[in-house]
Amino acid sequence: MAALARWCLRRRFVVIALWLAAFAGVAVAAAVTGSAYSNDYGIPGTDSARVSELMEREFPRQAGDSDTIVWHTARDAGTVRAVDVRQHMTAALERVERLPGVVSVTGPYGRDNADSDTDSGTDSGTDSGTDSSGTDTRRISADGHTAYATVLFDRPASELGESQVRQVLDTARAAAADGLEVEMGGAGIGAAQQTGSAHLSEAIGVAAAAVVLFLAFGSLAAALLPIATAVVGVGTAYAGVGLLGHAMTVADFAPMLGTLIGLGVGIDYALFIVTRHRQGLKAGLPVDEAARRAVATSGRAVIFAGATVCMALLGMLVLRLSFLNGVAVAAALTVLLTVAASVTLLPALLGLIGPRALSRRERRRLAAHGPRTRARGGFAARWSALVERRPKLLAAVAVVVVLVLALPTLSLRLGTSDQGNDPASATTRRAYDLLAEGFGPGFNGPLTLVGRIDDAADRVAFGELPETLRGIEGVASVSGSVLSTSGDTALITVVPEAAPQSRATSELVARLRDDVLPKAAEATSLKVYVGGLTAGYDDFARVIVGKLPLFVGVVVGLGSVLLLLAFRSIGVPVKAAVMNVAAVAASFGVVVAIFQWGWGSELLGLGRAGPIEPFLPVIMVSVLFGLSMDYQVFLVSRMYEEWRRTRDNRVAVRVGLAETSRVINSAAVIMIAVFSAFVLSGDRIIAMFGIGLAAAVALDAFVLRTLLVPALMHLLGGANWWLPRRLDRWLPRISIEAPSPADPAPALDPAPAPALDPAPALEPSPVPHPRPSGSRAPTAPHAAAAPGGHRAAP
Q: What is the pTM assigned to this prediction?
């Protein structure tokens, strides 16, 4: 690391130019090739996946994105059948149909509705819904005040340009008038209305982090360095994820998720290095030497911490789900590039700004009084002493806090989250509510039944199926069967009585699959598959839940092995695993309370309550385990260093907590600010991640790492550092500590600062610590204990 830092410092302008060139080059390539994101939750082998495949092959007209224009007349303004409303909306629909990318617009007013059942998966009713005037009565509500038209695009929603979709939205909504409300819903419309607010949340998060850094450093130049490093690393990764979408399945929220994680960890990693660099400057080191030592010490910790985050994220690959594979690789790529920027671009920038990493007051003090030793005392030391005096009481308080926050997790329900959960001000939410009010709650999430027909008996059985389905409890309406052009595939659209995200709709799907459809086809070879929004999410959730234990086991196991190798202890990784599970459970509790129970969700602009996305647990477990490992490493490494020096557990825990709590808390405040800002993204999924991660970091930093972990380590005593002799000899040795003997600390800083603690440290050696009876300190340097609790030979 020292050699890398030295090279970057000597060639600082080359390093800066290379990073900027990489940033610009990847961004240009991404802009030229365009994005290719996909929200295909289909899992091969499931009913919903078979429905999607058959629909794409046998009913190609539905391959493009299908959105809905909804209009509603006020009670005192007549119905949608009125002549003036009919003429006004017919002209508006014709204007929309002439726009680029629009294949067709199918409405209720005297249009050719012969193919209406195949134009929209939401049509329901009998085989014929057209009255004598040519009006499609199925597209007009029973009270006559709500109607809808289907807009079919020539491409899927993920491939539509924002400007193209927004032009359709603006044209349709321009038809609104006094007493006439016009709204739009659908996947393409939903994606278009979120883009602007997403970038606003990024800007707010970065601005909040800049304020925290400036307050911590007192130097504008030093505060901007972590921001600049993170922005370059995350920006390069953001564009790279766009290119990645052409090579593998990447969800459309993956770039935002990567940005959320990358900004948080990138700013924090740079914070650790800049803080250590400032310590070196205050100790009288030249700029280049201070930067070199900062990268050689804290930089090693950053690499180790980044590796644990990437490992946790890539743990999603064990699930073997293409949808999550892209998310895992995209997020890991972002973390990797932020780490690379922290250990290469940051030292170049530190060399560029020179002594301005210190504030003017600090530079004047250094010039007037010379280098000074690091400060002792303060709140961190008093807090550390309090934890030592009251470990049982404080541990009990921490456990109660965690349990209370984790209780809502017991009611976690994975399922459909749709545009009915959008904020009340969104056009998609208003369109959803108008359709639900006019046509029933289930109208927004119809089920698609697709059957494979091999002979005449199959055709007869499938033709009788609509009448059978109309008598099933929970079914609101059923369309007539539609045969594909090949004649061997047919479909039926079923509208449930309950909303798509309702548990009753999921129970209807299960009842159709397990009971109704097998009985209807028991005397034939007919096979009918159930697809649609709710069915697809239920299939995805079932597979995820089934594989979740394996995934958690892999992530926890790999993290524990890393800690075992780093700290030569059984107790440290066991406590870390328990703390990580606690942080995950508590953060899920917060997410459930806000998004599933609806506590304040509308107030925060996050829409109405609903179930939690099926993939959220997997992704959040990956991210949270990685971030929790960071703080565990930063805290315990300093304790481990002091334990090896003094062999006194009380001293090790006290000094380690006092010297690391400040930087952990500062880093946590930055992460919380960045993550919380993403609540403003306008995307429910990203808001879930933002709130969940912010809650987990707050709990991890302020309760677990600075309260529960040190309290438990005081209670366990020397058992914290126990490792069987045979295991100690068998395990390979890795080190995340620096500096080495060949790279001594400055003379005015006799107790080497830990590799993982860039905070202003306490000086433990001049201060007498109470030593418990029976504990021993080494009488000479050569008598110090070797790792694993065994004394080294002189």
A: 0.76
